[in-house]
Every structure is written in structure tokens, then in C-alpha cells.
Design a protein that fits this description.
4-stranded antiparallel sheet, 50% helix, alpha+beta, 4 strands, 114 residues
């Protein structure tokens, strides 16, 4: 599934290999590495995919200090939804994407210029 909104493009893919391919496709279509993000349910899986694809992970810059600190106290699902919202998606979209991550899928997001 792929969707777009005015701020970001997102695509749910089945695995890390497809996520790396999607990152490469986005890079070829003009997105900068620092505007392409990957998210998986497992934080280590997210980091591995980001390392291989040279994509970004959602961090302090995207979330802001308050949300970044709050994530220490949130469940993984709540943390993922907060990260997805910080990339420009609604709460409903974040809930949908988080459920896909629960199923072992990977979310690739490319932010448009602000």
C-alpha cells in the first residue's frame, strides 16, 4: 500500500529487502537520504534497514524533545505511532501503519520539502 499526503509519501512493504529497494527508488526520484525514513516494529530491525539503505530513522530532530523523552515511557506501539505522526501523518494513519508494522512489515516514508 502506498499513500501520499501534502507532507509525506509512505509505502508499506513486506520486508527489509523491499524497503531497501523502495529507498533506492525514492532516492532515484529525487529525495535526499535525510528525508527518507524507515520504520519496523523492532528498533534493531529499523536500524539495520537504515544502515543498509542509507536511510534515516526518526529521531530527536523529527519528534522534538518532549516526544523523544516521552517515548522512554511509552509502549512500542505508542512510540511508533508518535514517530509516524511526527513525520506528518494523522493519528488514524499512524494507527493503520503501526498495525502493519505489528504484522512484520516495514514502513518507508519520504518527506516532501516543507
Amino acid at each position: 500500500m502506498a499513500s501520499t499526503n501534502t507532507k509525506s509519501y509512505a509505502k508499506v512493504v513486506e520486508n527489509g529487502t523491499l524497503a531497501v529497494q523502495e529507498v533506492q527508488n525514492l532516492r532515484q526520484s529525487g529525495y535526499d537520504n535525510d528525508r527518507i525514513y524507515v520504520l519496523a516494529h523492532d528498533a534493531n530491525h529499523t536500524d539495520r534497514i537504515a544502515d543498509v539503505s542509507d536511510a534515516s530513522t526518526v529521531g530527536l530532530k523529527e519528534e522534538g524533545v518532549i516526544d523523544a523523552v516521552a517515548n522512554f515511557f511509552r509502549s512500542r506501539g505508542d512510540e511508533l505511532r508518535a514517530k509516524i505522526v511526527s513525520l506528518g501523518f494523522t493519528e488514524a494513519e499512524a494507527a493503520f501503519y503501526e498495525k502493519q508494522l505489528d504484522l512484520g512489515k516495514v514502513l518507508v516514508v519520504a518527506k516532501r520539502d516543507d
